[in-house]
Amino acid sequence: MHTNSPKLNLTAELDIELAATRRVLERVPFEQADYKPHPKSMSLGQLATHVVNLLAFKTLFLTYDSRDFLDPTAPKPGPTPTSKEELLARFEEYSAALREALAASDDEQLTHEFRLHRGEHTITQRPKAAAIRIMGLNHSIHHRGQLTVYLRLLDVPVPGLYGPSADEK
């Protein structure tokens, strides 16, 4: 593979983002899982679970050509974890499955279209590599950022993600 390989680029980016995500998840105070900074916000437990479940969504982009949100037989994430240990175990399981699916793919497969839809309504349709980056990685990074705000509001030291955090200086 050449250095402009979408697979190599995604793999390198995934390794960095998974390590950063794990550092944040390790700090989630599950005893405060019901905490919400605002009535419209997800709870801390829901948000942390969503960040982990998005890993399965990225795997889906690699494994299938489409996902219909109205399909009752489509793969669904497991039940909401009840502890940090369960959350981290699911993170490890889903991370391993994602890495395995990416390793089994090739650059040509990553150019195939992936369609995310609700019945006949297309939500997004783009090459798999772009779907993984935009709907997968970027989406996960967005929610991980929200999770770090929850940690800050709960006075939990925030880990550094792309350098030291204010708590690590």
Automatic annotation (TrEMBL):
User: Is Magnesium given among the entry's keywords?
Assistant: no
Q: Which UniProt keywords apply?
A: Metal-binding
The terms under GO molecular function for this entry are: metal ion binding
Identify the Gene3D superfamilies for this entry: dinb family like domain
Q: Where does a divalent metal cation bind?
A: H50, H139, H143
Family, similarity comment? Belongs to the DinB family.
Protein name, as recorded: DinB family protein
From what organism does this protein derive? Hymenobacter polaris
